Amino acid sequence: MVDLTEFLESLALGQYLSAFNDNDVDFETLHHLTDDDLISLGLSLGHRRKLSAALNFLETNETSEKKQLRTEQRDVLAERRQLTVMFCDLVGSTKLSAQLDPEDLRRLMQQYHHAVSQTIVDHGGHVAKLLGDGVLAYFGFPDAKENDSENAVRAARHVVSSVSQVSPVGPGAPDSLEVRIGIATGTVVIGDMTGASVTDFDSVVGETPNLAARLQTLADPGSIVISAETQALVGDVFDYEALGAQQISGFSDPLPAWRVLHEKTGTNRFDVLRGADITDLVGRSEEADLLRRRWASVEQGTGSVVFISGEAGIGKSRLLKSLRREIVNDDITRLQFQCSNFHRGTAFAPVIGYFEHVAGFAHDDNPERRLSKFKSALGENPNEIIASLLRLKNARKMSDIEPDPELRRERVLVELMEMVELRGAKGPMLIVFEDLHWSDDSTLEFVNRVVDAASRLPILLVVTARPGVEVAWTNDPHVSFMMLKRLDRKAVRALIQAVTQGRSLPAAVQDQIAQRTDGVPLFIEELTRSILHSDYLREDGDRLVVAGAISQQAIPMTLQETLMARLDRLSPVKDVAQLGAVIGRRFTADLILVASQADQETLFSSLKILELEGLVSRRGSGPDAVYEFRHALIQEAAYGSLLKSRRLELHERIGRHLMEHAENSDPAMIAYHLTEAGLRPEAIDFWIAAGDRSNETAGFAEALENYSHALEHLREISASEARHAREIDVLLSIGPCQVQVLGPASDEVYETYFTALQLGDDHGAPEQRFKALWGLWFYYFMLGAVPKMRDLANRLIPLAKEIGDEALELEGHHCEWAALSLLGDFAGALTSTEKGIEAYEEEKHHWMTFHYGGHDPGLCAHSLKAVNLCVLGYPDRAKEIADKAIGQAIRLNHGYSLLETLFCSLIVMMLRSEYDAINSQAGRLIALTDAGRLPPEARDLASGFVGWVETETGSETEGLARMERSISGWQGFWGAWCFPLDAAFALALAQKGNAEAALQIVKTASEMGGNTGGHWWDAEFNRIRGNILLCKDASEHDAAEECFVRAKAAAQARQARLFELRAAVDLTKLRLQSGDLQAARDHLEPILTKFTEGRDLPDFLRAREILDRCNLE
């Protein structure tokens, strides 16, 4: 609509503006004022006539389409949307106004406006304003199309041509007219400037119209300049001249601009729009294989037709491109026909496009050049039908060749089929018709005839179309129908990987892409590229990591046109889609009734239309029905088109309604709507409740997100003791979720618990400090920082005593015995486990299993007591306690408690060399894993022990292979706790002749122990290293002895009698070889006397045998 101020000033009547404003007269009211009204407003006779003439001129030149829109769109709310804006300016208009008689100038301007306006409307644009010598037009409003930017550029080229054909008349008139055109694309708010309703239908707020007008000034007469955004959307449909970065008035930074040269003659829409930025075919192996088989049949002489159907962006063109790449024979005849929505009204448009492409016609070819190119490309003179179709030089008009339209079409079809038949008789042919949904009727009949020919000739005809296209031949025996489905999750990840060129995206980002794109390849690619080109990620070697907080990227500009086009096709019910989008991807009928405040009958009628058009799906009926947007991005586009003020209003309305029915509502939904309404403090309790609810069902990722929202909102509130206390509670809820989602040793876990502890020291209760300390302890436990574990355990125990909570004191000792065991303080760990066993009562303390560490503290105390006892030289008592623990674990039947108990019992059995018992318990561990009660790594753990038994019992090859297959699983899952398996594997490898690999395993494990403080297996690693050296070279006597001496010293320092015995045996064997019997006896006799049990075990019997040999000699 014309702006009142601009309108009056253009007529030199600006002096009346204040009178009109004082009397509430806007431009719409102006049309209804009588002559008496104008007199009362102070207008003179001449000015009244001038105003009346201008209004009549506008009314006369306003298109019927625009009048209809004025009527229909009065009550439409203003919207946010992506818009392509064209600004067209008549060159030399000031000079024309001085040279021409006013009446001639008026006629010329009418011709100019008509030429421009009609061309814009013909290309799907909307004429927003006629500004004297300028025309402002929108593409993408009021109805978006999936190629608005392309339509705008194509319209601009035709405007240049149309205006040049205007013939000015009168003295001083120029021979022809020229225009300059600027085009820009961006997000705008369109509609009423107040944001309430569209009182001025054409008002646009945003920088895009201004940019289009500024770009116009960069254009030469008869040329078009476009913005970088427009050029990116249009792609390679046109040839351009890059103008580089331009300093444009009103814009702080220089902006790149492009001059449009001409349209390319390429026939494949996919190629010109996507250019070279094309990924490999993903997730279509079955479909590609079908096309290969059909082509193989064609090569054998049997024709075939494949009809590929699928929604926009699903991959039809990419599948065809893959087929064309695979057919490498240059002698094959290929005919490629591309239907286009721009030429649906042109008979045989794809055929014309094919010949123009093959001949290589350029936009500036003269008739002689076009004829020469045609002859050169096709090697023949065109017959009169084809020549007429292509408008070649000297060609007769088609109407002169055949006056009757039906016979004329038949003549063309006959000529085309003769071409197909002749080429088909020479050998295999590939014929492709893309986008049949945009076909004109004449081309569709051509397709029908080629389908028939494919039953007789070696032709593979491939036709693509969107759903809804009906043809008569889909059931013919030589026709295969292929409906392309959306990609599954595995294929989605593969396509993302292809777009990132092998660089790994964080799992959370991949999940977000998958959830938002619903398996549509085009959506996946464009959203992935949008994320790659944002500040969202940074490179870290060959992978990409999140640079900041994970947030949702805006819909890429490349998809905006497609998505809004789908919505605008349903403009009568689009507002209902927008309301549903505010609620979410899924919405209920009763809730959208609340949001819309419309009558039920009208609303359900609108929802039915959305359902029939495939925008939403429905479960249930009536007020209980649940609707879901079929595409997440459609929902986002509908939501994004609403003004922010309107969104706030709707979110608050929905949130308040849900709060009134909180007992039956999802707290996460309440929290979401309150947050989006800007009522963040009110949303906190609901975010926490949502987190608690998700936690109850192990939805840790959802709980983490909900708690994080609560924390964010809490931190926006002014600091107080109450706020700090709640903040600590939320942090302590976040920590366990991060452990599950991000990993227990992640940086985020540390930051959460450290922050909670800092706040707790200043503002928290002792119970809060205990939880924060324990969270840090668990972080260091999973990180393997054993000294830190011990230090924190030393703080936990006195804090628990301060609180006066026996359960927390038990947990403090739980942390202590784990740390002391890994440190190698076996005696200290034994004392701590005994305190735990004394304190533990199943009825009182089993609940701790589900809050601290994921396993029962009583079972852990018994299990690690058994391990420590065995190392300290009490293997019989260790076995007794381990067996008792297994019985209790089986009775409690808690998965991870069983895992830990069985693992510790396996270590005891390994130390006692109980091969049959190991196989039995390992089998139980494997069964639990197969039943899904334990993670896959538990199977690797069990296999490691079974493999060791095999190496000890004569099946070295099988055992080593089993251990090698399992090592990554046990090392990655258990770290330092699996040093016994690492040592055993290394020794078995050395004994089999692979000493170098064995030494590397021991070196890696020893370094890990040194780095983490996990020294509990140091003595054994030294002893094993000595034995490996002897396996490598028997002459390594001195180096091996040094290892054994270190092993013995380390064992003695830790009171590890079993390890001391083993080191003494190996030292004694060396002394025997050197003949120093007394030294041999001195190593062995003292340690044997320390053993009061376990005298029937292999280690003791082996030592006794060696000592007896010393005495005999």
UniProtKB/TrEMBL annotation:
The Gene Ontology CC terms held by the record are: cytoplasm
Q: Upper taxonomic classification of the species? A: Bacteria, Pseudomonadati, Pseudomonadota, Alphaproteobacteria, Rhodobacterales
Query: Which PANTHER family does this one have?
Result: GUANYLATE CYCLASE DOMAIN-CONTAINING PROTEIN, TESTICULAR SOLUBLE ADENYLYL CYCLASE
Q: What is this protein called?
A: Adenylate cyclase 2
UniProt-listed Gene3D superfamilies: Nucleotide cyclase (3.30.70.1230), P-loop containing nucleotide triphosphate hydrolases (3.40.50.300), Tetratricopeptide repeat domain (1.25.40.10), Transcription Factor, Ets-1 (1.10.150.50)
Ordered alphabetically, the record's keywords are:
ATP-binding, Lyase, Nucleotide-binding
Q: Name one GO molecular function term.
A: adenylate cyclase activity
Q: Which EC class does it fall in?
A: lyase
What EC designation does it have?
4.6.1.1
Provide the species name. Ruegeria atlantica
Instruction: Indicate the segments forming the SAM domain, all copies.
Output: 1-61
Establish whether keyword Transport is in the entry. no
- Spell out the InterPro entries in the cross-references: A/G_cyclase, AAA_16, Nucleotide_cyclase, P-loop_NTPase, SAM, SAM/pointed_sf, TPR-like_helical_dom_sf
Q: Which GO terms describe its biological process?
A: cyclic nucleotide biosynthetic process; intracellular signal transduction
Pfam families assigned to the protein according to its UniProt record, in alphabetical order = AAA_16, Guanylate_cyc, SAM_1
* Signal sequence interval, chain numbering: none
Which part of the chain is the Guanylate cyclase domain? 84-216
